């Protein structure tokens, strides 16, 4: 590493001092990294980080477990005696632990005032001088017997106070309170579980280490509710390894009368503002067209996002789109990285319960030793009292006749053969208590103490008894503080199978084909507006519309060309235009050859029905529409129809129907398409329908409704091939033949 030093002349000389980079990292960076890991970012087996523990213990020492609320500023100020990181940081920690913030299934702080919301990014919490707090009732289980040496205490940052290293929680709080943290080179992300389920699963685990935890601890449970899509493989992964993810999605209800979707629960990992911003962007980008308006209607009654949708929109399909395109459906990634004895470990559920059980058993042993010591001390004092009860007068005489106060204790010790502690206890008895009843009560208390001491010694010598105590505590906690699940589990999810088409708005469109190979796609609304204003189509000189058809924006459009090719395009991929524009030039849009023109267009959504191809040689080919359906999205299909004879016309028939064919404009024939056998081969030459003379040709083919006649059945043929019937003059004039 280079170090610059300034010379007397003002110039810099480079003095190079070689340093081993590993030594530098170890001496400078590693202490920082360990401080972040151990003292800041990762929770310990009691479920708390140091910042949480300092705050809650301060409130406990302030008497806020059973007392009235106090101003948050007061708590923040007192906490700074243990936590020197600043009032803003302390208050932010407090906010997340409050009932008002709704970040925890079981808040540790009972709050009054505005503490913001877990599900809102922009809802700011009030300043600490305006809010009030006290410890919630569940904290009685967090601090239980903490004053009985159940956990270790350490000096605070200036050595003036003591603070607990851990809390002696009576339940596995590590699985009940969600925790996330980013340390150096590692992170932690612990989801919350239902308290009642955790207590039940822990009891079952204590009784049988091989129990199936999934039977009792069903899945994570979040304070913001929502629906958890149950994936057994992922749950197994999380429970076994401590890593994995769960999918949570929002809950909604649909108000059909007002065409309104109300979202009232969202995933824990997102916020209402993020969701609304994303939906607005999707609407602006025309990726979602079913939404008219979206509003945040969250109030004192709880979260609510209101979405006004169009009358013809399917709410379930719309929500399925929003689930896939926004954080209304989100993943919570789990990484159960926990500090155990100062070392970070990533553990599955059973490992966590095992470590917590070891920790809790040690807490109970320490508490039992504390109680045992206190009772043994009291028993020892009462034993000394029993020695003087038979001769109270002697004790009084010794005290009375002792001239120096400092000699009272030694004289009592010598007179009754007791130790100093016992003598001090006797000397401190008030004169008013030197009555028979008081002294006998104290002696009788000795028997009860002996029983308690025996019981405590038995507990210390038996792990099974300690586990029974833990089981009883867990049962009591589950009964007292348990609550129903907030996150609903969806075991057999049947998601709507969405394709790319489902993200496209469906509406009516009309397609137009011109003789000069121009194409227009016009929405029904735009077309109706043109009709109301009597606006005619804009066309090039000498151009004309040769075909128009109505379809939907989600249909497949098939362009049949003069080169026996068919070009397939999704209707929603075609540009919309107005009647006042020329439209799209198909040679550019489809990449046609110079002399290739489009002779017919068809539209379908399900490829049902048939294509009829009529040829000048009097043949008609009936091709199943399914022949043009492809698994892959191919744009061009060759050999779409036969090229052996010149094409007269093409017709798309969604179902069997009557058609009219014309020979040389003098004969016509009406026949049912059912007479023509269907072919699966696209370029089939068809079958003979018309018996033609030499130099004759089939010149027209059209649907029955397109031929004007007062007696259309006159042209009916019941079999084919046939010669047709001569067209009368009235029908010739009506059809411009």
Task: Describe, in plain words, how this protein is organized in 3D.
By secondary structure, the chain is of the alpha+beta class. The chain has 4 domains: 42-169, Topoisomerase II, domain 5 (Alpha-Beta Complex); 251-327, 2-Layer Sandwich (Gyrase A, domain 2), CATH 3.30.1360.40; 356-481, Topoisomerase, domain 3 (Orthogonal Bundle); 503-734, DNA gyrase/topoisomerase IV, subunit A, C-terminal (Neuraminidase), CATH 2.120.10. The strands form 11 sheets. Strands 27, 28, 30, 33 and 34 form a 5-stranded mixed beta sheet that branches. It has a 4-stranded mixed beta sheet with strand order 16-11-10-19. A 4-stranded antiparallel beta sheet has the order 12-13-15-14, covered by helices on one side. Mean pLDDT is 89; it is low at 1-5.
CATH architecture of the largest domain: 6 Propeller
Oligomeric state of the chains? single chain
Q: Portion of residues in helices? A: 25-40%
Biggest sheet: strands, sense, closure?
Answer: 5 strands, mixed
Overall tally of structural domains: 4
């Amino acid at each position: 590493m280079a170090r610059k030093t300034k010379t007397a002349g003002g110039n810099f000389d480079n003095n190079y001092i070689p340093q081993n980079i590993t030594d530098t990292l170890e001496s400078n960076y590693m202490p920082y990294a360990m401080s972040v890991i151990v003292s800041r970012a990762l929770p310990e087996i009691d479920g708390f980080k140091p910042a949480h523990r300092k705050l809650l213990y301060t409130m406990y020492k302030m008497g806020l477990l059973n007392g009235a609320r106090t101003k948050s500023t007061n708590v923040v100020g007192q906490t700074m005696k243990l936590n020197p990181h600043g009032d803003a940081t302390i208050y932010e920690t407090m906010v997340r632990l409050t009932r008002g913030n709704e970040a925890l299934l079981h808040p540790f702080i009972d709050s009054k005032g505005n503490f913001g919301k877990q599900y809102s990014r922009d809802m700011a919490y009030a300043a600490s001088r305006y809010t009030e707090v006290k410890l919630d009732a569940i904290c009685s289980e967090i601090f239980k017997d903490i004053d009985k040496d159940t956990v270790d205490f350490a000096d605070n940052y200036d050595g003036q106070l003591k603070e607990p290293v851990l809390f002696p929680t009576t339940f596995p709080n590590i699985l009940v309170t969600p925790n996330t943290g980013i340390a150096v080179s590692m992170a932690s992300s612990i989801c919350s579980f239902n308290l009642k389920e955790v207590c039940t699963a822990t009891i079952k685990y204590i009784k049988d280490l091989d129990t199936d935890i999934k039977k009792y601890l069903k899945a994570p449970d979040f304070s913001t509710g929502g629906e958890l899509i149950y994936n057994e493989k992922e749950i197994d992964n999380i429970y076994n390894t401590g890593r994995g993810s769960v999918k949570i999605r929002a809950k909604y209800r649909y108000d059909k009368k007002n065409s309104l979707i109300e979202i009232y629960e969202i995933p824990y990992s997102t916020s209402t503002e993020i969701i609304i911003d994303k939906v607005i962007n999707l609407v602006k980008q025309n990726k979602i067209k079913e939404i008219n308006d979206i509003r945040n209607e969250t109030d004192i009654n709880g979260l609510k996002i209101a979405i006004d949708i169009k009358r013809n929109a399917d709410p379930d399909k719309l929500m399925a789109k929003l689930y896939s395109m926004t954080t209304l459906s989100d993943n919570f990634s789990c990484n159960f990285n926990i500090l155990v004895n100062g070392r970070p470990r990533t553990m599955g559920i059973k490992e966590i319960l095992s470590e917590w059980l070891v920790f809790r058993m040690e807490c109970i042993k320490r508490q039992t030793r504390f109680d045992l010591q206190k009772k043994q001390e009291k028993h020892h004092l009462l034993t000394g009292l029993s020695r003087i009860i038979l001769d109270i007068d002697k004790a009084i005489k010794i005290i009375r006749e002792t001239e120096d106060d400092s000699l009272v204790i030694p004289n009592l010790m010598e007179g009754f053969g007791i130790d100093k502690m016992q003598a001090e206890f006797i000397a401190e008895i008030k004169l008013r208590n030197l009555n028979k009843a008081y002294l006998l009560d104290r002696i009788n208390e000795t028997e009860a103490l002996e029983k308690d001491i025996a019981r405590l010694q038995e507990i210390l010598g038996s792990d099974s008894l300690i586990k029974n105590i833990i089981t009883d505590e867990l049962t009591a906690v589950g009964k007292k503080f348990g609550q129903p699940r907030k996150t609903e589990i969806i075991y057999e999810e049947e998601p709507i199978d969405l394709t790319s088409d489902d993200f496209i708005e469906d509406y009516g469109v009309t397609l137009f084909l011109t003789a000069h190979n121009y194409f227009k796609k016009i929405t029904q609304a735009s077309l109706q507006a043109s009709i109301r204003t009597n606006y005619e189509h804009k066309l090039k000189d000498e151009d004309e519309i040769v075909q128009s058809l109505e379809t939907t924006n989600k249909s497949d459009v098939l362009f049949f060309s003069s080169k026996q090719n068919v070009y397939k395009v999704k209707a929603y991929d075609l540009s919309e235009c107005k009647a006042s524009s020329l439209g799209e030039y198909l040679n550019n849009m489809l990449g046609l050859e110079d002399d290739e023109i489009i002779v017919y267009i068809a539209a379908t959504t399900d490829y049902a029905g048939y294509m009829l191809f009529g040829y000048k040689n009097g043949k008609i080919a009936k091709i199943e529409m399914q022949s043009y359906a492809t698994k892959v999205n191919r744009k061009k299909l060759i050999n779409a129809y036969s090229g052996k004879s010149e094409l007269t016309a093409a017709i798309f028939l969604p179902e069997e129907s009557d058609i009219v064919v014309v020979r040389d404009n003098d004969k016509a024939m009406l026949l049912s398409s059912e007479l023509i056998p269907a072919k699966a081969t696209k370029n089939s030459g068809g079958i003979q329908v018309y018996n033609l003379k030499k130099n004759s040709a089939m010149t027209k083919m059209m649907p029955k409704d397109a031929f004007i006649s007062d007696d259309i059945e006159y042209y009916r043929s019941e079999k084919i091939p046939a010669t047709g019937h001569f067209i009368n003059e009235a029908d010739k004039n009506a059809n411009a033949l």
